[in-house]
Amino acid sequence: MRNADSCRSGGVTSRPDAVATDRRRARAGGLPARAWLLAGLVGTWAAPPPLAGFAGEAAGVSVAAEQSAPAASGTPCRDHRRRALEPPPGGDPLRVSPGAPLVVAWFGPSDPGDAVTGDLWQAAKLAFDEANAATSGRPLELRPCWAKNPWGTGVAKLFHLVYHEPVVAVLGSVDGPATHLAEQVVAKAQLPLVSPVSSDASVNFAGVPWMFSCAPPDSAFAPVLAAEIARELRSGGEGLALVNATDHDSRQTARALLSALAERGLTPDRQLEFTPGGDTFEVQLRALGDFRPAVLLLLAGAEDSARFLRGVRRRDLHPVVFGAPAMGRRAFRKQAGPVAEGVRFPWLAVATPETRSALQRFQAAFQARAGHPADYAARQTYDAARLLIAAIRRGGADRRAVCEALRALSPWPGVAGEIAFDGLGRNLRPVTHLATIRKGVVIPLTRSDGSQTDLSAPPGKSPRSSRPGALHFVRKTTGH
């Protein structure tokens, strides 16, 4: 499909004026050039390999080539966790005055009233307050370090803080690009960085041994989402539209979904993009109105997803809507209102029987502090903070010892699910279920037969296509 705002290139859709920029980003490993320029200022290391199939790249690049074989199997070519850690500048352990707190830098906003990031700060602060109240040992301080422009003032503040204060680790950030910035700092200063919510797998591709990602990457939840979309199309729906925002995280998620759909022989009939922060989406909504898809895959942040979905409903369009995990955020439900009912998205926060009592205690404490229940991202942030605190209790003021403790404590049972790091520092906990929204509440998606979605295995049908966008399924003689 072509319109004034989009063109098709290499099986994906992007704005014409963004193609050249995307090519430059792809050559830099999917990051804007200014990020790698900053890396030259605060420290250098081997850049991650270029990622094939980046949105807007030249024609002929296969979207399905997003992940290499080692990444797909969960085993990296090289286990960077086994590398011997060099002593940080100035030596280890840190020189801390008796009775002075050990500082953990929070690289993210600290406004509890912020609709998107406020709950993350509240959850992290709750974990540190509970830790200080539970022991008489050396206190821990969670110190915010942020600016509205994280690329400039924000990362400069973090760089100054870790070199001039007794900072033993960094917790953050709230999205993929900001986490990349923090990673550049810790690679030079050599201290642990624990990322609570970013699902951007490219954060770990640089092989920095100080980097730990607690949220499952996009590649962990893309298969379950693609399987449910395929199931919906097989049930009689015709037409799949993929709409994603143009920010870094949304495009990374779109790449993972395109790859997962391709493994099932599916290709979106329409792919559209929009700029984050918009309100009208006139061109994209008109294109959807002309096409009227049976299934809409919407990949954007919580607030952008809510705004776009409201526009879809105002156009009297009623496709089955699938989305990214961001649809499980409180900000999405609050802004989308009634139109959020029935959307489907990956369910990232699955408590085990062993952690159910801990989850109940956390939810009660968070409700008392914030005035509302915690969403999955707040639960992930609480887990990341508690894991880091446990590592600091083991390692003290020694940054290398804290990093080694983070490795040793994996797998870690959290209120959002297990955290188990692989050789690249990723949490490859499998995501096998979807959730939906009923009366403003996130609940597990249950089928008519009473079973919950568990789509970790490919479906027992083999698709074939006689033309792009046409879906045909034939039953195998053996299968599920």
Would you kindly provide a brief summary of this structure?
By secondary structure, the protein is α/β, with parallel strands linked by helices. The chain has helices at residues 16-27, 33-42, 69-73, 118-134, 150-164, 176-189, 218-234, 248-263, 282-291, 302-314, 330-336, 356-370, 376-395, 399-409, and strands at 7-9, 12-14, 102-106, 140-144, 167-171, 193-195, 211-213, 240-245, 270-274, 295-299, 320-323, 344-346, 412-414, 417-419, 434-438, 441-444, 461-464, 472-475.
Per DSSP E runs of 2 or more residues, the count of β-strands stands at: 18
CATH superfamily of the largest domain: Response regulator
Content of β-strand = 15-25%
- Between the first and last Cα atoms, what is the distance in angstroms? 36 Å
Low-confidence stretches: 1-75, 447-480
Specify the CATH architecture of the largest domain. Answer: 3-Layer(aba) Sandwich
Description:
- The chain is α/β, with parallel strands linked by helices.
- It folds into two domains: 102-216 and 352-419, Rossmann fold; 219-347 and 446-475, Rossmann fold.
- Helices cover 38% and strands 15% of the residues.
- The chain is built from 14 helices and 18 strands.
- It has helices at 16-27, 33-42, 69-73, 118-134, 150-164, 176-189, 218-234, 248-263, 282-291, 302-314, 330-336, 356-370, 376-395, 399-409, and strands at 7-9, 12-14, 102-106, 140-144, 167-171, 193-195, 211-213, 240-245, 270-274, 295-299, 320-323, 344-346, 412-414, 417-419, 434-438, 441-444, 461-464, 472-475.
- The strands form six sheets. A five-stranded parallel sheet has the order 4-3-5-6-7, with helices on both faces. Strands 9-8-10-11 form a four-stranded parallel sheet, sandwiched between helices. Strands 12-15-16 form a three-stranded antiparallel sheet.
- The protein is elongated, with a radius of gyration of 22 Å.
- The model is unreliable at 1-75 and 447-480 (pLDDT under 50).
